[in-house]
Amino acid sequence: MLLKEYLTDNCENEQLAIIINNLADAAILISKTIKTINKISQSEVNKKSINVDGDLQKPLDIKSDEIIIDYLKKSPVAGYASEEQEGFIDFKNNNEFIVFADPLDGSSNIDVNVSIGTIFSIMPKNNLLLDKAFTQSGAKQKSSGFFVYGPQTTFFLTLGKGTLLFALDENIEMFVIINDEVSIPKSTSEFAINAAYKRYWNSPTAKYIQDCQDGEEGSRKKNFGMRWVGSLVADASRILIRGGVFLYPSDARTKYKNGRLRLTYEANPIAFLIEQAGGKAINGIDDILTVPVKNIHQRSPLVFGSSDEVIIYRKHCENL
Ligand code: AHG
Ligand code: MN
Ligand code: MN
After folding, report:
1. pLDDT tens digits, residue range 264-278?
2. Ligand 1 contacts CB of residue 55 (under 6 A)
3. What's the pTM value of the predicted model, to 2 decimals?
4. Pocket test for ligand 1, best of 231, 258, 270 (most atoms within 8 A of CB)
5. 210 and 134 belong to one structural domain
6. Is 105 labeled as catalytic in the residue annotation?
7. In this predicted model, which residue has the larger pLDDT, 35 or 167?
């Protein structure tokens, strides 16, 4: 079944269906652009700029953001917030839906041909003025998804009725369903964390990871493996497909005392997909989807994946 057909049959709101179809078309163009990166003029590639978070902006970050804006301008969307925009863009219309996006996630992997992607979250304004609408909690999402530009271009989507996985059929340039009921295994023996930052970890994280590393001789009585891609979309894709637990906790570095990942366009959309697939997503204690949003670029600790492991981690945080 094609994405368009799935949305016709399952998305009650026609405007929401149009937005998702247009985001999928934007992703196909971003995917093509990445594959022709060597054709972007050398001056553009060397152009460096900094986003509002103080993170380096790559030309593809900016190009991806521009492509999404072009497609949203021809969609029933009232406003757009993105990692690459300081504030939200007001499209000056009375449309109901607003969109958050991380136009290109995993930018540090662009130059080394490792999977990167695009993350989006869609909410209704709920009769709020735009500035308030953009500070609604993740529970208000009507849809979220992410695209992975990897060996295959794939797309995880939720409308709040489970999580689905699509793959791009390059011959017809359309997404087709490959799993209509993604389900994360409750237990796992694979964790994902950037182990280089061990000296910055809080004690619950240090305890949880040490117990995993102690293997079957330790308190967990089982051996664990580790994967860390450095692209949230790639790690989330693996966990949605085969299970696992992902941790980007708050740490002792000032810039990351509230974690590194952003709540509105990384943690919220991923948490919605993970929960719809039977997993859990927390900031340590609270479910991500309940965390109050104060501003668009607010950071949050993020631990998600196989529910058994997230529950064990949360117990360490509660006992702190
Ligand atoms: P972005 O490229 O959109 O800034 O996101 C990068 C994020 C996320 O994709 C990944 O999980 C994390 O940064 C990796 O952080 P470290 O480089 O600190 O491991
Ligand atoms: Mn990102
Ligand atoms: Mn990004």
Report:
1. 999 999 999 999 999
2. yes
3. 0.96
4. 231
5. no
6. yes
7. 167
